[in-house]
Amino acid sequence: MGHYAAVWDHTAATEVTKDWNGIEQVVLRNPQGASAQVSLQGGQVTSWRNERGEELLFNSSKSIFKSPKATRGGISACFPQYGNGGSLEQLGFARNRIWIIEDDPPSLFTYDPQGKSFIDLLLKPSEDDLRFWPHGFEFRLRVTLASDGSLSLISRIRNINGKQFSFSFAYHTYFSVSDISEIRIEGLETLDYLDNLCQKDRFTEQGDAITFESEVC
Ligand SMILES: O=P(O)(O)OC[C@H]1O[C@@H](O)[C@H](O)[C@@H](O)[C@@H]1O
Predict the structure, then answer these.
(1) Nearest Cα to 26, choosing from 135, 110, 174, 145?
(2) 46-75: per-residue pLDDT in tens?
(3) 86, CA 20 to 30 Å: which among 10, 96, 167, 217?
(4) Tell me: the pLDDT tens digits for 167-202?
(5) In this predicted complex, what is the ipTM?
(6) Quick count: other Cβ atoms within 10 Å of Cβ 70?
(7) Computed from CA positions of residues 111, 107, 143, 35, in that sequence, does the dihedral angle turn out positive or negative?
(8) Residue span of the signal peptide, if any (predicted)?
């Protein structure tokens, strides 16, 4: 009768497989047939499909997986540095590490308790990481596929030794688009940004939407 909520078991909607490199991949499914795939390499979301099976994320066919580097595509979490504004690798090292699945993470309140599937991932720094970024942290990432097919990522960074540190963070997201001229990015008006193409000078966004005439890089 279409009432799945009473019997929906989110753990049964989560499957762990291995890719051809032996790296674990978590597949999330919702009752309507949408899915998402998360790689333990970088905690990177490599696929997000709607209920018609259409892929919503871009993955470059030219990107060759070379462990431990993230591939060009999907959604990766950049931490503890975004861009080249610090001494670390350009988008931080978190996306280039192997994460683990956390079965019993600290509680996290979320809506949509029915018909969703999710996975909790955890990254802790290795001895090597601490050598060039000496800050004890735990980075928790929850990736959720909701009953309406929407995807959400919640990141929690915990300082585990009480010594203050600063970091930058971003979700590096590649959407798959069929016609870039139809894309509008809204919600940035009045926000300040540093323009990478103008020596990182600070500007304030004036437009109500950013549009594109062709590919940019
Ligand atoms: O590591 P990836 O996914 O290929 O992304 C690299 C790109 O990341 C972007 O954020 C930078 O602005 C680009 O300059 C850079 O080329």
Answers:
(1) 145
(2) 999 999 999 999 999 887 767 778 889 999
(3) 217
(4) 999 999 999 998 999 999 999 999 999 898 898 899
(5) 0.92
(6) 25
(7) negative
(8) none
The minimum-distance atom of ligand 1 relative to the CA of 70 is 1
N residues, the chain: 217
- Structure-token match 């601490």, residue found: 130
As given in the structure block, the two tokens for residue 68 are 């431990």
Q: Please, what are the domains in the chain? A: 5-176 (2.70.98.10), 180-217 (no CATH)
Contact of 193 with 205, CB cutoff 8 Å: yes
Looking up tokens 């909607």 gives 13
Annotate 36-52 with DSSP letters as a single string.
EEEETBTT-EEEEE-TT
Pocket-forming residues, ligand 1, beta carbon under 6 Å: 70, 72, 91, 172
Ligand 1: which residue has its CA nearest to atom 5?
A: 72
Nearest Cα residue to 112 out of 138, 144, 143, 137: 144
Q: What is the pTM of this model?
A: 0.89
